[in-house]
Design brief:
The protein is of the alpha/beta class. It is about 25% helix and about 15% strand. The chain binds CIS-heme D hydroxychlorin gamma-spirolactone 17R, 18S. The site of CIS-heme D hydroxychlorin gamma-spirolactone 17R, 18S has 23 residues, from strand 2, strand 3, strand 4 and helix 10.
């Protein structure tokens, strides 16, 4: 490929004043980006005088036009008809998958010039802030389903670069259930609510899902991720993101390298636990959406670093798995993740429908310097996304404000439903003389002209999977091996929970004896103990031995040793920013303690909320009114990350409150840090937690040292090793 020139006209998107990436400050982040300015062209502030859609001022919008006071409504009432008809047409089809989502605007900035790897300008110019719009989603549920379902999360990033749009449409898990796109409709039909009764909503815990995966051994690795706590993120800001497929980066000289894209959350990877997630689903089904919205509103901007795993072309076959197989990761210990830039979400959408609902991602939206591989899952996606947008949003979806690129679009595509652009002139074809040959091709040498990577392809047309895609279990075992004891326990419990929801003994049997036994003995045994599903003895004709069809293969002996420590989330974090802490109090609460706790949490940018029996105010020990943030009935323990019980005369009253006792027990059961200051320890005693230990995240003390202990415990996030059975909840 010829070397490309880099002198194409540039359009500034937003620039920082030359500071280093590490010193990116909020002032520059909050600068208007070109996309903000662009969206403003279509943004309408609330106005004063009401008018119809044709601009006519309306004198009465609340009474329809009738023949007499008690008479029938008249057809003539154009305002009634316009208002009702528009309402009737308000919905567009929800996404067939990833229907439930939330999104925000932000910026991306690369740390250093990566032109040795790629010509994509957003990755070569550290002075440039590229506007982005990022949508997070669950996969299986409908638009109104809970945020906290056990599910994969979508992590879709639209970059408005000065060379056009790049969509990195990824997930919070680095692998997928299937290896070929042709199976996708089957996978989704199996996981969605069952078609006869539309049950269950947003859950994989039902027969059809487990039937399908038990017959699809390539799903084994992804199942480990989905049954792990990764499927229960604490917030969007504490999830990793992955491009999943292997992509290509191409530099100016036409040199290509393989790349896996990662998003590393600055707040670390943090999860909920299953019982907590289920309860949040009832108490606050908008838990993640609310957290994203509120954190941006208060200036606690979610941040991720973009990570690249680069593999040279000549190393393509150096791994024990195929780089084109989307059920495999490249362990970080084999190819380190190089952190190359930062994504910051700093502005909420103004209108959910116009932005979050109408945003249309497509895995095939790329810019020069980024290209595809032959991963058969990716190849199918390249067809599916444009098709789904045409169906869902319409043929002119790319013209909508949230979807349109920042650079001008000139081509001969015309017309179709709801066209907004008014193309001038007689010419809508190419080649032409009448239009001066415009719009014309850009020479291949120009850096911002897209030229597909000239990969050599020579093969017979076949419907066969490569033998190099046939090891389905080694990385599932590797995932299991890489988990800490409590993470393994949660995985086994999750499999057991799901299989206990499955009615068909046949399906349960096959999941155990065709999937789990091939992953790890300890996993199979733990699930067997919790489900009553027998592990088939080898050679027993009643219970066929773990079938090892050639396409799945039995556990490879060396897999027993595989491990990738980077996969575990059992690591302390270095910030508690944005974490929510319940402060239990009441009339007579110790004024000094309350102030000290609030101040210390605020200094860490964590949120302390005072909870009391009623809303309004309580009176502290100094006789001053204190604003209650939430009344106890509106403040379930599951929406908090930790609890502080304060001393003062309120402490004794709390020991008599059933809801305070339940609150503390439930927080304990979910592994949350608990701090009791002064007489606050009375409530611990009332819950039989008086003997709990600091190493279990239960801190009892006076003033400052208890608060310090609480912050240290919050850095650990949760204490899941506590014996769940030891406390009534
Ligand atoms: Fe998607 N996927 N997908 N997917 N996907 C869609 O596009 C599809 C896959 C992902 O916030 C749909 O606009 C096929 C993997 C995200 O708007 C649809 C296959 C990964 C989102 C579609 C996959 C994803 C979608 C539905 C198998 C991670 C939400 C609505 C070949 C790398 C984007 C839509 C948003 C959405 C098809 C598998 C990520 C139907 C055929 C693997 C984050 O086009």
């Amino acid at each position: 490929m010829p070397k490309r020139s880099r002198d194409a006209a540039r359009r500034p998107i937003a620039r920082t004043s030359g500071q280093s990436a590490s010193a990116i400050d909020k002032t520059s982040l909050n600068a208007e980006t070109a996309k903000t300015t662009d969206l403003a062209l279509n943004t309408v502030e609330p106005g004063e005088a009401m008018s119809g859609n044709q601009g006519v001022k309306i004198s009465d919008d609340q009474n329809s036009l009738k023949a007499g006071l008690r008479g029938p409504t008249l057809m003539e009432d154009f305002h009634l008809r316009e208002k009702i008809t528009h309402f009737d047409h308000e919905r567009i089809p929800e996404r067939v998958v990833h229907a439930r989502g939330a999104a925000a605007h932000g910026v991306f900035q690369v740390y250093e010039d990566l032109s040795d790897l790629t010509m994509a300008r957003l990755l070569t110019d550290p002075s440039q802030l590229t506007p982005v719009f990022v949508r997070f989603s669950t996969v299986a549920g409908s638009r109104g389903s809970t945020d906290c379902a056990r599910d994969v999360r979508g992590f879709a990033v639209k970059f408005y670069t000065d060379e056009g749009i790049w969509d990195l449409v990824g997930n919070n898990m680095p692998v997928f259930f299937i290896q070929d796109a042709i199976k996708f409709p089957d996978l989704i039909h199996a996981v969605k609510p069952e078609p006869n009764n539309e049950i269950p909503q947003a859950a994989s815990a039902h027969d059809t899902f487990w039937d399908f995966v038990s017959l699809t051994p390539e799903s084994a690795h992804m199942l480990m991720w989905v049954m792990s706590d990764r499927a229960l993120p604490r917030s969007f800001a504490t999830m990793e993101g992955f491009g999943v497929h292997t992509f290509r980066l191409i530099n100016d000289a036409g040199e290509a390298r393989f790349v896996k894209f990662h998003w590393k959350p600055i707040k670390g990877v943090k999860s909920l636990v299953w019982d907590e997630a289920q309860k949040i689903s009832g108490k606050d089904p908008d838990f993640h959406r609310r957290d994203l919205f509120e954190s941006i509103e208060r200036g606690d901007y979610p941040e991720w670093e973009l990570g690249l795993q680069i593999v040279e072309e000549e190393d393509e076959f150096k791994f024990s798995f195929d780089l084109l197989d989307p059920t495999k990761i490249i362990p970080e210990e084999l190819v380190p993740v190089r952190r190359v830039g930062k994504l910051t979400l700093n502005r909420n959408a103004d209108n959910f429908f116009a932005e979050t609902e109408q945003v249309a991602f497509h895995a095939g939206h790329v810019v020069p310097g980024i290209d595809f591989t032959n991963d058969p899952l990716l190849q199918g996606r390249l067809f599916s996304y444009i098709d789904t947008q045409l169906r869902r949003v319409g043929p002119n979806f790319a013209e909508l404000p949230i979807n349109r690129p920042l650079n001008p679009v000139y081509n001969n595509q015309r017309d179709a439903m709801a066209r907004t652009v008014i193309n001038k002139g007689r010419v809508s074809y190419f080649p032409n003389r009448l239009g001066g040959g415009c719009p014309m091709h850009s020479p291949e040498q120009e850096a911002d002209a897209f030229v597909s990577y000239a990969e050599t392809i020579d093969g017979a047309k076949i419907r066969t999977r490569s033998e190099s895609f046939s090891d389905h279990f080694s990385q599932a075992t590797q995932f299991w091996n890489s988990m800490s004891d409590w993470e393994q326990e949660h995985i086994a419990e999750a499999f057991a929970f799901e299989l206990n929801q499955v009615e068909s003994e046949e399906v349960r049997h096959h999941v155990m004896n065709e999937l789990l036994v091939n992953i790890a003995d300890a996993l199979a045994e733990a699930v067997s103990a919790q489900t009553g599903i027998k592990i088939a003895p080898v050679g027993d004709p009643e219970h066929p031995t773990p079938s090892a069809p050639t396409a799945s293969g039995p556990l490879r002996p060396e897999a027993k040793e595989l491990s990738s420590p980077a996969l575990s989330q059992d690591k302390p974090g270095d910030t508690i920013k944005g974490r929510k802490i319940a402060i239990l109090g009441g009339d007579g609460v110790d004024a000094e303690q309350l102030k000290a706790v609030r101040d210390s949490l605020m200094a860490q940018e964590a949120l302390g909320e005072l909870i009391a029996a009623h809303a309004g105010t309580i009176t502290d020990s100094a006789g001053k009114p204190q604003k209650v943030n939430r009344a106890a009935p509106n403040a379930p323990s599951v929406i908090y990350d930790a609890v502080v019980v304060l001393g003062g005369s309120s402490a004794e009253a709390l020991t008599k409150s059933g809801s305070a006792i339940h609150f503390l027990n439930e927080a304990y059961r979910h592994g949350k840090p608990i701090a009791a200051i002064g007489d606050g320890s009375l409530l611990l005693d009332a819950c039989s937690l008086g003997g709990a230990k600091v190493q279990d995240g239960v801190i009892v003390g006076e003033g400052a040292n208890a608060i310090e202990g609480l912050i240290a415990a919050l850095l650990q996030h949760r204490f899941p090793r506590r014996l769940i059975a030891s406390v009534p909840a």
